[in-house]
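Kindly go through the following sequence and its backbone structure tokens. Advise at your convenience whether the structure tokens fit the sequence:

___
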Amino acid sequence: MTFHIIGEASGMDDIHRVLRDRAEEIGASRMTLDEATGLPSGYSAKLLCNPPIKGLGKLSLGLMLQTLGLRLLVVEDPDATAAVAPLLPPKHASRDTRSKVNQDISLRPDIQAIVARRVREEMKAQSSRGGFASQRSKTPEQRQAQGRRGAMARWHGQRASNAAATGGPSE
């Protein structure tokens, strides 16, 4: 198997640039990338714009790499290693608990679908817990004010959509 080097990256900005360049190289629109990766509509545009609006995460990076036909290979930078070597203390041998990772797992679409579903479920659960935690930290007056603002926003949006449908004023 031979690899064609697409670009070089030493940070997230470089990874974003390489992904953007690859998408342009293969002529993939952002909407096409959204459909192929299974990411929400418009998400690829937010990931690949310059500067990025959204950051690449565990899920989105893997999906983008696979969809763009890319694979990350990590190589040692001898100059960087030499620069930081004196700053790093030796690692305690008994704490070394690295395990072998199956490299083919990221290539299997069935595994990726399961991971994507679990990530969505976990994110939904976390956001729900965050809402409850936010409400617990507020006083009753703060909760009431927030509810009032939400109701006004909903009613204002309803009036605007009704006005657009009937052609009348929104007030």
